[in-house]
Every structure is written in C-alpha cells, then in structure tokens.
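On clarity, I found the account of how folds are encoded harder to follow than it need be. For illustration, here is how one protein appears when written out as sequence plus structure tokens:

:::
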Amino acid sequence: MSSTVQQTRAARERLKKLLKLPGNSTCADCSTPGRPNWASVSLGVFLCRDCATIHRGLGSHVSRVRSVGLDEWTTAQVDKMERWGNAAANAYFEASVPYDARLSAAGTTTNQRRTRFLRDKYEKCNFVGPTRSGATDPADPRNGGVPGQAPAPPLENGMPEGEAVKEAMRRSLFDAKPKSAEDLLSFDAPAPAAAPAPDLFGARAPRDSPPAAPAPDLFGGAPPGPVDLFGAPPPPPAGFASPPAQHAGQRRRPAPRARTTASWPCSRNRTRAPRSR
C-alpha cells in the first residue's frame, strides 16, 4: 500500500475523532445538529452543507472548503483542524457578535441572511474582539495564528511599532539639522518677508529719529511742499510760457479750414456739340 493512501486513511480517522468532540458535532455557523460533512481548511471549522455552499461563494481567499469523507487531506490540514475546531474559532470570530445576529438552525434561515452573516463574520471580521485588527491580525487562523494568541500591538500613527520608531527617529534628525538660508532640498517653503504696514493716519515719527531728508528735485525747482487742494494753483516754473489769458464767456474760434477746389467737371462747364440737321 502506497504512503499516500495510508496518509489519507490516517487523516480521515483523525477527522472522525475530531467530529466526536464537543462543539464539532454541530455546524460552526448555524449550529445545525448532526454530523457536519464539510469543513473549512483555512478557518479550521466544521460546516453543514448549506453553510459550506455559502463559504464557497466567499472565495478561496476567505474560506477553502473540503469534504470530510470524499476529499483527500494532508497532515498539515488535519493538524490545523485539531488546533482550532468550532469552539476556538467561534471564540475568536464571534467575540462580540450581537445575540440577535446569530444564525438559527438550517432550514429556518434564508440564504440572504446567511450570506450576510458569514460575510460579516469571516470576510469583514465585524465580530472579532475590539483589540483585534481584522483580517490582518496575526492571531487569525488564515494568518497562521493559534487559539489564545495575544493581539497585535496597537498601531501608532497608522503604522506598525517598528515603522513608527523609524519615522520618529527620521523626524528628530530632520528637525535637528540646521537649515541654511536657501535650503533647496527642503519641502517647506520659506516664509515671505513681512511687508511694512501702510501709515493710513499719518502717525508721527519718534522724537529720537532724525528728520527725513527732502527728496531731490530732478527739474531744478524748489522741493515740493504740501498740496493745497482748495487754494490757488502754484505758479509755473521759470522758463515756461503760459497761454494767453481768456476772458470769461469768450469762446475760442476754431482755426479756419483750408478750402480745396474740386477739379471735377460739372454739367455747367460742359459744351454741347451742334446738332446736325
């Protein structure tokens, strides 16, 4: 007899013993009494026919279903079933499940409700303990976890503990590095220089400040003084010819326009030819 056949027979004998243990004699999801003929190798639970059908629809990345009496089993797969079982798996996946959300026996639950419950239980991991991290938890049987395994350390700033320490060290070294006036490799834009605030109310300068020098006159005249909006206009600078005075009410005549004589022929300048008789 080949070793493969002996290994298959030994695996089936171990599975029969596991089905007699408390908790494994009913379905792990709907608690249907009787001997479950199906099992999820990746989750380590025994299932009834109806729940095994829903498990197949979840995908092999969530649950891998095998028949207890028809399919071939490896030693590693049977070891995982012995390690977990229905009681340990439900203690992990149903740690915080509401009482009214549990499934009833097969035949009294619709397929829609059964599918919704199994997706929440195994795919979304909505009923695991509050200290668990869902499908990425190391204690999950699909990740090689064992029953009673301590939860993973909490994430700091959304990253594992080791990565958080590296990020903190990198930030401390970056903050300790003195930045030059023009740091071209910095991601922080330099702060713009503050513009002087406009003097809207003409505040006086402090007494200890020296008087401001007058601005140079580019046209050679006297330095400009304060502008009087309601006074007489300032005199024109030297060398500027002012236009002649104009009396009030006198209108300036426009310049005469030069007349041009048209050289086009007109009907009066035409001479009629004598009419022949």
Notes: The longest helix spans residues 3-19. The chain has a mean pLDDT of 76.
